Here is the input.
Amino acid sequence: MQWGGMHKLKQQLQQLAIILSGLGVLGACTVQPARIPSGSIPMPASPTVLVEEHVDEVVDDLSEDYALDDSSRQYYELLHLLSQMATASGTRPDDWQVYLFDAPDIADIRAIQGNTILVWSGIFDVVDDQDEFAGLLACEMAHGLARHTDPVAFNLGSELMFGVTDIAASVGIMVLTQGMVAVSGTGMTRWLYVEAADLDELDRVYGEQQVEEMAEIALLILASSEYAPAGLLQFWRRAESDPDLRVRLQRLSRERSPGEHVAVLESAMAVLPADDDENVPGDEFASLSIE
Here is the structure.
């Protein structure tokens, strides 16, 4: 009965967070990051000890559900590709770390803080060639370079609201458990809001500005690499025309349709250096075949 009451309280707090998110009460109070200068590739931040410990915790948690792969042919192909893309971005391969999870049913790549890329092995089954794979990897590297993977920052008004809700929740838990459980400290409702609003790093849905920045940075990286920027647009155009592939890519799409990805990429193509125009065909993308 007590557990049921606590679970109900958590659900109510999450519902409150969702309502606040929908009303824009908290969303409007997040600290909006500065826009990345157009035409530039940011340099990676050096992870702190706390960030490195956090990355280890995330990987350990995921390893409970998916086996880590650090010895297969796919893993070494991934390391090689990451090294090439790091060089193309003007960074060092040692600036990055990548983890491959053995999960054939999951096609996904996620960047998290600490210049870390997480890959689920199902991604190898949905790409047609190395250009497409390089494009998807470049997108996640771009999110990391642009600091989109950093924890969401809230301004003073939001933090005060979280503090008040934390106190109310602590009192509620004590009442429900008749004083047997006492929860003190801060951060409980902040965490619930981040979870409910898809701001957690593994479920994060990026905003329009962040997606536009990602697309531009990813294409700049690809234009400096041996891989054709065309491959990334080819991938999402193929997904747009293939219903089965769209289903497989629901996690990777992050609540954006393949058509929306295509539109953002087409717009970002304008930032590519003029010398790389031969790598960026127009309507012939749909029939492009890359060796």
User: Anything to note?
Assistant: The first strand starts at residue 67 and ends at 69.
